[in-house]
Amino acid sequence: MNPLEPSPRIESVREARQFEMDTLVGVVLRDGVLLSLGLIVIGLFWRWLRTGGFALDYQIAGTNLFEFVTGEVGLAVQGSVRPRLLINLGIAVLMLTPFIRVAVSMVYFMGFLRNWKYTCFTAIVLIVLTYSLFLR
Amino acid sequence: MGGMGGGIILIPVLTALGIDIKHAIAISILSVIATSSGSASAYAHDHITNLKVGMFLEMFTIAGAIAGARITLASSPRPLYIIFGLVLMASWVVLLMDKHPSGQKFTQQDAFTRWLELEGSYPDFVTGQMVEYKAGRAYLGAPLMFGAGIVSGLLGIGAGAVKVLIHDLVMGLPPKVSTTTSNLIIGVTALAGTSVYLAAGLVNPGLAVPVILGVVAGAFLGTRVLVRLTNQSVRLFFLVILLAMAIEMIARGLQGIWA
Asked: How far B164 CA lies from chain A's nearest CA (Å)?
């Protein structure tokens, strides 16, 4: 047997790993969207209990996602938990969903598939996204 | 919904309701994250999506989206209406021709695409067999995807139709793989665009929340209603809607120029 040829067993392990990664990516995307929608719906319902209306009349001032999230969490820690907090966190979770998907893919390419080429590509995507999330 | 019908329908509706086009674009691109991630999750799970093709092309679309969104921020509303109207017109023409373009299949890969390992296999649910395929011409697909990213960031749409065309015609991906992989790319591209609009203060939760919930409910119901309708009636419906919206958007953009 040619030692340079990958054995069929290794190849199938690789394939199984690729399958696992597809599944994991699917789970991250699905759960992220569901969590985000859940937070938004609960926030709206809570607001309705409080004010009797669904109308949201606030603006998010120009900010980046990290300032946005830390600001919201800061308010929550100070004890001012408002329906708005849940809705804003819902929007933040929605934005973070594709970001986490990319991060998970990178860990997988690096840690399990040992594919350095694609680890680099994914890292570039992650860096550009992080840059965009810090824009202001 | 067939690679079309998200933002491209949403934005004309929002502007017709009197919402400023830049706010409409910002909210649309945020809602695109929800719809594309939702549908991408199902397909990734079924192992149809090609993650390598997705990851490689995402490098180009996100750069394009950031550039496109910046152009929108700097631009005045009038040209945005006109560009949007032209994109609607282009979609209308593609729909009118009603040809699903199928690109050539690659049996021999070029060196660059082979280096990128862009090939794969997906399960065919009818026959139960794995279908193997090789992609090609990644050197051409990449810069074109940068352009698709610009359109996406500029107009706040997924630009799924453009991405599918590049996958099909240039890179020779099978139709199923090309649609689902484009969905995956759209989510990340929309995030890059959304960040720019968020930083500019254009994401207004009061508008974004009902739109996100509406679009997700619409996508969910839409797929269930669509399967009951014939392709012809769906097509006719979209032909009428797209043309009306294209004319309306272009008219708005031109309004007052000759007056």
From this structure: 20
